[in-house]
Every structure is written in C-alpha cells, then in structure tokens.
Fold these 2 entries.
Entry 1:
Amino acid sequence: MELNELSIKLASFETEGVSFESFLIANEGEQDVLQVIVDGNDELPIFVTQTEEQLLCISYLFAENEVQADMRNELNETLLRLNVPIPLSAFAKIDDKYAIFGALSVNSSFDDITHELVTLADNAIDALEAVTIYLND
Amino acid sequence: MSILKKLFTAVRGGAREAGQAIVDANGIRIFEQEIADAQNALQRAKKSLTEVMAKEMQTKRKISALDASIAEHEAYAGQALEKGNEALALEIAEKIGDFEAEKAEHEEVLAGFSNHIVQLKQQVKDAEKSIKENQRQLTMVKTTESVQQATMAVNSTLNTNSSSMTSARESLERIKQRQQDRQDQLGAAKQLEADTNGDDLKAKMAEAGIGDTNPKSADILARIKAKQNS
C-alpha cells in the first residue's frame, strides 16, 4: 500500500476506539515518510516509512541527553530485556534518539497496519511511563 | 564480511551521525550486480538443466528401443537355428552385436548426461542460495539507508515544530493529562445525561420510598386475599 493511499484511508477510519490523523512529510525525491498521530497524542507521533520489503513504523521516545548519565547502562539493559515481552514493538536507537518501532511486511493488510499503529502508540506511552525514572527531572 | 558485521563496525566507529552513509552507494551497486549475475547464472543453469534432462530422456528411449531390437533379433536367431540355417543365424548374431555396440555407446552418453544433471542441479541450488543471501543483506543495507533518509526528513519536521522540542517527561505528562481530561469529560457527560433524564432524582426518591414505586408481590397477594375474603 502506498503511503498516500494509507493516509487517505486512515483519515476516515476508526478502530479499537481510536482515530488517526496523518500527513506526508514532504521529502522530494527521497524516502517518503508518513507522520501518523494516534488518538490525538501528537507528542508521540508515529513515522511510517516504506522500504522494498518492510513498512517501518517508528516513534521517537526521548533523546540520549534526557537520560540520567549514571543510569544509562541500566536503561539500555532494561530496554533490551523488555524487547521480547512488549507486543509487536521493539526498542531501538536512531542517531541520538531512543525509539520504539514495529516492522511489517509490505504485503500487510490495512487492518494489520492499523492494529500495528494502535499497539505501537499504546506501547510508546507505556514505555515512556515505565522509563521516566531513568530520565532527568 | 557480512553486511551485518559491516553495519556493526560502522555504528561502533561513529558513523551514526545523521546523513552519514554507513554503506556507500558503490557497495549497494556491487551487491545489486552480484544478485543480477547470480540470477543470470540461475537462468542459464535452469535452461541447461531442462535441455540435458530432455536429452537424457531421449537417450533412455533409444536404449530401450535397442533392448527391444536385441530381444527381437535374438528370437529371430533362435528361429533360424531351429530351421538349421546356421549362416542366417550368424548374420542375425552380427546384427545383434551392432545393436549392443550402439547400446553401449548410448549408455556412455547417458551416464554423461546423468552426471551433468547432478552438477546442474547443484549449481541451481547454489545460485538460489546465493541470491537469497545477497537479497537479505541488500535489504539490510537498503533499510539502513531508508531509515537514515527518513530520519533526516523527520528531523527537519521536528525542528520546525516547536511542540516536539519538549522533553519526553513533558510529553508524557501532557498525554496523561489529555487521557485524564477525556475521562473527566466522559464522567461529566454521563452525570449530565443522568441529571437530564432525572434518573438520579428518581433513584433517590425510590430509595426513600417516595413517588411511583413498583408494587411489591406481597402487596398484590394481600390484595387478592382480601378480595377472596370479602
């Protein structure tokens, strides 16, 4: 599914009691990115990128400099341990930002994609809540 | 070196700055070329394989035809001997010898084809494996590249969007506040609905035994009994 098609479909769709807002980030000639806001939580947008094989859904959680320096190792260890139990999503680091992401096959159905988006949005909030103890005040 | 190892080394080496290509475009082109070459080799191997398999079948058919001829002529030779025609029998035997020589030649060719088929099948397998492996690695490289490009696009959006400059802590607080607000609104809406329907007041009155209360079955029974007695 093309990202702009996904954007149009999302606009008039509601699932699991949740609605979506989305818009394409202009990135002429380069990788297209769709910014999706789930349930009005524009603090934690999900960025959807399509590659040849995968649909990557990424939400940025916090920057490295927000982590209490002496707790960084513990945080990294915790995130690694949480990777398996957390449903459908995994933690990652992109540049200096910690992120949570899910990867889907490009052949996924629209229902699969919305389920992924809703789950990722919930996971992002839960994850942020769980790791605030490691962050600077 | 596998691509994953290269990526690992690059990340450790600090190539994680946005925009810095971990694997150069040249590397990707080489990979794509390797995949294309392997796919060509695969096509060639498959084409040869079908050709050789067809030839193998033809040769097998020729051998069984010769077997049939040999059996046939052996019967003829037997008949000639029965009729005491030794000279004819000898001539037939010579013919059988020719057939057998021809069969031996074909059998040699057949063995060559069979060997060739085994080799080609192995080549097809190898090519398929190599293509799959290279494609997997190429996917990794391309995904890395896509994520880098996407990150740049995202960063340029985030930087122009002041709300995203807030810390994760503040973001979380806002989200929690919004969720709380929503719950409060929902609660208030329910309260309002109950008030306008008068459900609340009715419930309170009923509790106090005021207003229309449902007649109790005991009362009804008492009324019926009273009627019977009168």
Entry 2:
Amino acid sequence: MSKRSPFKVYRKPKFQSSSLVVGWSEDAGQLGPGVIDYLTQRLGGERFGEIEPEDFFSLSGVRVEGDVAQFPESNFYSCQENNLVIFRSAAPGFEWYKFLNSILDVAEHYCGAKELYTIGGMVTLSTHTAPRALLATASSQEVKDILSQYNLARNMDYETPPGQRPTLNSFLLWVAGRRNIPGVNLWVPIPFYLVTSEDLKAQKRLLQFFDERFGLNIDFGDINHEVEEQNEKLAQARLRLPEVDDYIRRLESNLRLSQEENERLTQEVEEFLREEE
Amino acid sequence: MEVKLYKKPRLRSPIMLAAWPGIANIGLIAVDTIRETLEAEEFGEIEPWDFFYPKRVSIRDGILEALEFPSNKFYFKKTEQTDLIFFIGEEQPSGGEKIYAEGGKAYRIANLVLDVAEKFHCKRVYTSGAAVAPIHHTMNPRVWAVPNSPELVAEVKKYENTILMSAIEGREGEGNIVGLNGLLLGVAKKRGFEAICVMGEIPVYLQGLPLPYPRASKSVVEILSRSLGIGIDTSKLDSWAEQLEQEIEEIYRQIPLEIRGQLEKLKYVTYAKPAEPSPITEEDKRKIMKDVDKFFKKRGRGSE
C-alpha cells in the first residue's frame, strides 16, 4: 500500500531560495486573510499547490457563511519576483503536526524556503485610535537580532494561561525550529470590538513591515485611503451612537468595561460597520 | 513517532498498569495513586507531537523558549512481590473536540504502549476507567472488571467488591468500554497479552461534572493492590473524597425534587442480579436513568 502525499504541487516554482509567509483564513480583524490576499494580488502570486483537506478537516458537511457554502482551502502561492511563498489556509482540526510539516515540506523542498513568517491578530482591550504595535516572537536569538533593524516589539514574555492552548502559529514556529528553519511569529494587537470586522490599520502595519523587509515597494496610497475611510466610519459611529463613544472614551482613558459593556460595544460597532458597507 | 526510553531497567516479568483520563479520571487517579505511593521511577515517554496539540507555550524575552505537550510517560518499580511498569497518559489523543481517542491514532498509541510491554516481557496489563452506574453517591462504589480472555474470568470472580458485566442485570455480559482504557484491552488481546480493565463505579448523575470521584478510584486501588499483592495507603483518597462530599451534596440538592426522589431509591438498589426481590423495579431504574440523562443533558450511560 503506497503512502498518499498530503499535498499536491501542480508546478515547481523557480526559486533559488525564498521566504515563507503563512496566514490563516480566520483571524482577528481579518488580519491574516487581509494581508495575505493583498500580497498575493499586489505581487502577482500564482497558485502552485495545495494541501488536501481529507486528513485535516472534519468533512462531515459544509459550513454556510454569508449565505454561501464554504470549504476549507489550503493553498500555496508563489511570488517569483519577490522570492516569496505564501500559504493561506483554514486552521486544521486534526493531525496538526502532519499539516504543519506538510507546509514546510512544500516550502522547503519545492521552493527552497529559508525562513518563515507567520501572521496573527491578538485580541486586546486597546482602542482603534491607539497606534498599532507589531510584536514579534523569534525562533532564536539570531532571528531576534536580525529583526532589530525594524520597528518591532521584540521582548515579549508570555505563558499560555490555564484553560487555553497555544496558537497554531506558535506550533508552526516550533516545528520549523525542529527543522532548522528560522522564523518569526508576527502579532498585531486588534481592538476587541474589531475582531470580527476588518482592522485595516492593523493590516497596514503588517504590510509596512513586509514592504521594508522584502523591499516590495508597496504604494500605500490605496491602503491609506481605506484606513482613513474606516477611521471615518468609526468616528461616525461615535457621533451617532453616544453609548459607543462613551465606551471607547473610557477605554481610551484606560478604564475597564464590564463584560456586558464589552459585548454591547462589539455588537454596536459590528452592526454599524455592516450597515455602512 | 516513537517511544523514547531513558534507561532499560532489568525487570522480571513485570505487570503493566496503564491509564488515560476519562470520566472523573477514576482510572487515571487510581493508577497514579499507586505509582505515586510506590515512588515509581520515570524511564521513558512516547513522543507526543504526532498525537497531541500542544498545551503550553513559553515565550521569554521575545524568543519561543518551549512548547509543552501533554505527557505520556512510563515509570517502573521493582517490589518484593512483583515488578511494575506504569503508563500514564495526560490526555487521550482524540483530535478535534472529542474526549476519547478513536481510529488510527488511538490504535497507534495503544500499540506503542504495548511495544514497551513486549520489550520488557510483561505478563499482564491492567487498564482502568469509570463505570457509569445507577448507584447513589452514599454507596461504596464497586468495580466492574472486564478481562480480555475467558481464562481470566475465574480469577476476576474472586476479586472482592468486583463484578463482571454478566452480573449486571439487563446487560447479559455485554457493554462498551469507550476510549483508550478500553481499546488497550482489545489491542492487548490481538497481540497475545492477558489484560483486565477495572472500572470504578460513578453515580449516573455525577458522570458529566468536572469533578473527580476519589471514592471510585479508591475501590479500584483496593482491587489492584490486592491483586498485585502490594499494600497501598488510600488515606489521601479518603480525605479527598471527604473534601468533595459537601460539593457533591450541594449539586445533589440542586437536582429537582421529583428526580431526586427517584435517585433516593438508588440507595436501596442492588442492580447486580439480586438474591432477593429488589425494592424498585427494572422499570423504575430505567426511568431514573432517563430522567437523569434528560436533566443533565450529558453523555449517555455506559462505561469508559
């Protein structure tokens, strides 16, 4: 009985060496999909492979989202000119170690990937008016030193709280470390009331880093415009909904809201942004 | 994916005791109590990453320092009476959101545990779990025992406070043992090991709560220690049970009066084949189980 490969590669990209960027399709503030989709479109990324879903996802039916049936996809894109391999996927529900190794197998063996970057939104109590920091967890001191030339928060201390589990990004960084692939988990704090919406400011912050790191020459004009638009919508929400303004003002003053107030703020902002679309 | 042994102790036909978490962790706590009391020494582990999602990450000064997985460890102890190997699994490799392992992963990890049993020429394997039963929490839990060969039935019958499936009315010797504590029994049979699963009883209305049930673990420890010919102090389990008593009583008081009235009858039930007429009928017992299941909306009755 032959062993079936968990992935398919339709064509081998012509890379001497490359960097791998990984984002998950469900992420706080749509950070992962927002950044990944922008990069693949902007850099002319071409789909060249995928991980087959059968070992990794519950295929007991389909999930319907926004009136449309969804199916878990795990795709690889090559951005030849920029030596970037991009992987965008739903988070697997089973066989995580095998899944993460499959990502690295494709990136390493078919694209000569030499480093890994993962993208993740981090839910915080800060507001959308606060500047977005970019936090980094490196796989080693060498990687951390390389990142010193960028404006990143690189001194994070963290331990998984009881009852929670590490993120898939931490798991991937660890697996990459075992394979001697240096890497970094990149995190942008997302205001909790934007978690299910898009946090364009956070997406911009991450794109600025990639632009600088990979010399992408991104024209931020359109992104800046979208960020301004979202800021304007949120400003409108504060004007029209005094309750929302009060909650955000208190958060800006470092005051805590009750659980009920948190939920109310999130709901109000979500609804407002949806109506404005 | 492999077993890593840090040392190779010289053991004479050891007996293996293996346990994973399950309902109220009855089996796990029982086996771990014996391991801890005997101060068994750790000597190996199953590499976990292929089976488990990590449980903790440590990041220090911006560098990923460690990723910790649920542990799967082997321990050994040489005693005057017998040599022992313990396997303690911190989680069942269930994948997704299921509690119990099943399918390929369960089969693989069961075989890895038995690879160690084979390497050290184990003469027997014990596994342990919980038996959800129509009993009252004031009763002393019994132990349901399931051997993996007919030759062991006579021996099991001699254990005190222990019953076989055939002794439970309505079961006719049949039942299911869900998860690895049961599967190991079957895989052991396939590979030619004699094995027995011992399951401590837990009242049906406590099965879905996030509480241990040390009284049942104690019953299991008593059976295992007698069978192995070793003395185990169970006073820690007694104090633990005492501490939990108030909490269990409180939960019991929250059950609606109508259902509680039914449950009270369980104090007088002998659900194993009675020598004398039972004070409540089989129909009563079925109604109790149905009402309790409905009330708690938890897992169906059975054993793990």
